[in-house]
Amino acid sequence: MIHKFDVSVTSTVYTYLKLTGTSLYDYNRNPEAGIAAYSEGRKLARETFGDKVRLGGPGTPSISYGFNHAMGVELVFPEDDGEVSFVCPHWDFDEAMSRLDTEFDLSRTGEFPFYLEYLRKLEKAFPNEKIKMSMVAEGPVTDAWIVRGEDFFFDLYDDPDRVKEYLLALPEAIFRYDMALSRLCRPDGPVEQVNCRSTVCDDIAGLVSPELWPEFVIPALKKYFGDSERKQAHVEGMSASHLPYLEEVGVTGYDPSVSPQLTPALISANCSIPFGWRLNTMQFHSLDDDGIRNFVFEAAADGATGCFSYTDSTYCTPESVRKIDIFLKAGKTVKNMFEKGATRQDIAALRNS
To answer: How far apart (Å, rounded) are the C-alpha atoms in residues 280 and 265?
Structure first.
């Protein structure tokens, strides 16, 4: 059996902002700052990292709460360079359900006209690149938490029927939002679903007890994915007890991202879904050279189909560039060995060698 293994490091806009001296707030609220970040920032990133690192392409600022904003949730743009956030409306279920019936006229709603203009300016600045409108939707459990706040976790016990009703109603509203966003961005082109149905990002699902997944989470995710052949799930913070339920949902690819309770060995022991293993920023800076290599070797030996990392504002140093090279070389070693027929046990022997 030939195992597949990929390794990559992708440069993000946070690196471009650091290299160009642009604040996150300015990038979020000023299209000219975005243009400068992607034009000059990518050049500087290429000079910093060489051709080893993939350069993320241009797009409007990433806002994870576009769907919720379309229903009336207020966005917050911190001036101290914090991520775009939101004000929880604490709607009761009657109000939340009624908002799902929203007829999405995004051309007149909240921040959408501003980010449509932002998109058009990026398209003009980068005419040969596909520009993404990054006003996305989260998965159903996270969307429910956004509008209910911490009360959501009490609702699971105090009002379970309304929770289930709301979670099952969310996917259809998300799909309608996706189509409305596509029409806004490409009025003369084919309507494309931007977020669904093949990929879900639902981190709050990882905070729901595994014992409650069959009743609440699994039905919602099944409805979300529908009959899509590709079902990719990004859920952080899960435990080993959650993992078998991903198979019940029919997930075909799993991104645990930052999940302190999991290891590649635990994932492989509890489900058979292909997964990539992320080297996050904290690990990247805390591990020494051997630690970086062993991170890759252990992940491959224990079942991961690849390792990946993303640069941010803290990666723009000679030390970080050196560590990136070590990470990528270790991944290439694994890939080459697998292509020649090596087993996972053979990879395990590389640890600390």
So the answer is: 18
